[in-house]
Write a structure and sequence with these properties.
By secondary structure, this protein is an alpha/beta fold. 29% of the residues lie in helices and 21% in strands. Helix 1 (12-21) links the parallel strand 1 and strand 2. The protein binds NADPH dihydro-nicotinamide-adenine-dinucleotide phosphate and N-acetyl-L-glutamyl 5-phosphate.
Amino acid sequence: MIRVGIFGATGYAGYELLRWLRRHPEVRVVFAASESSAGASLADVIPGPLDTPLIAPDEAPLGDVDLVFLALPHGAAGKMARRARAAGVRVIDFSADFRLATPESYRRWYGHDHPAPELLPAPYGLPELNRAALRGAMLIANPGCYPTGMLLGVAPLLMAGALTDPLIIVDAKSGVSGAGRAPKQNTHFVEVNENLAPYSIGQVHRHVGEMRQEAQRIARGVAPEIVFTPQLLPVSRGILSTIYLRIPDDWSEDRVRALYREQYADEPFVRVLSAGALATLGHTTDTNVCAISLTLARPGLLIVVSSEDNMVKGAAGQAIQNMNLMFGLDETTGLV
Ligand SMILES: NC(=O)C1=CN([C@@H]2O[C@H](COP(=O)(O)OP(=O)(O)OC[C@H]3O[C@@H](n4cnc5c(N)ncnc54)[C@H](OP(=O)(O)O)[C@@H]3O)[C@@H](O)[C@H]2O)C=CC1
Ligand SMILES: CC(=O)N[C@@H](CCC(=O)OP(=O)(O)O)C(=O)O
């Protein structure tokens, strides 16, 4: 049994993780910690079936666990990672604190100093594209939700060196749980309901740095140019990314699909849809799957649609996939 602790259990990502871990046959949840609700039961904080007792983070028995999941905001996660690693405990971090390889890059995209630079670089936890680095790892940076869908959607072409233009346009729509549980004006029901709102457009969203870093690694050093438009969709969960790419004029849609199917042939959590089918949120809701559809709009212009559940493949499910790799379990254990 892997003995785990969870920090940030009252947040959307932490709660989702607990929900999935209940079905994992090789995990025992030793503690769930909460800064604001220590002493309460989770069901007192989030109405639902999980009545896990919540303890104060300072009282977390790190000596009793093999692994902690950090479902905390950026900055707080890095500090907790330092504490856990000093106690010899493995870490899977949901936040962005360990996704960027250098403290300089982190400061550029997050606007403050890195909370634990001595722990950088950490392996980037996208198993389909970085599996070897995750097996047995002591600290894993779980990817951002938007970069997960984007990177899986473009990787086969980047690996093949098949883009004829470095420009990658990513038009993405996210369910509101992606913004976390703390209320904000733009996530208020009246703002979101029956609306579709872009935010952080241009080159300002912090996920552009993460996408660029990982896309460049996948493309073996060739720097992509990414234009990213995130939008808030009036649904609770799911991300649909529509990605526009330039490919050689003589490539057929079948050729592209064969490339994607070959790349993802052994991947249990990537589904390349058949000709004519388009990926929708419904293809991936409440699963750890990323579904990808491919459409040749005209010679040389490919439209990829990538669908994922931001709470599962974009957060808790991917974290469990990473845990399975970390501890040498079958990667699909506890996941669908
Ligand atoms: N929501 C999503 O779809 C995804 C989220 N993530 C990442 O997962 C992490 C958690 O996100 P999410 O669950 O959405 O966020 P939430 O805001 O829903 O939850 C975060 C939790 O962290 C705790 N917390 C808040 N502020 C602090 C603080 N300053 N110090 C310590 N603990 C704090 C709170 O719990 P308490 O007060 O009870 O301790 C809170 O419930 C973030 O880093 C996010 O970027 C990653 C991918 C997808
Ligand atoms: C809808 C929404 O607000 N989404 C978040 C991304 C959520 C996520 O998974 O990313 P992190 O783990 O990097 O926070 C945002 O745009 O910042």
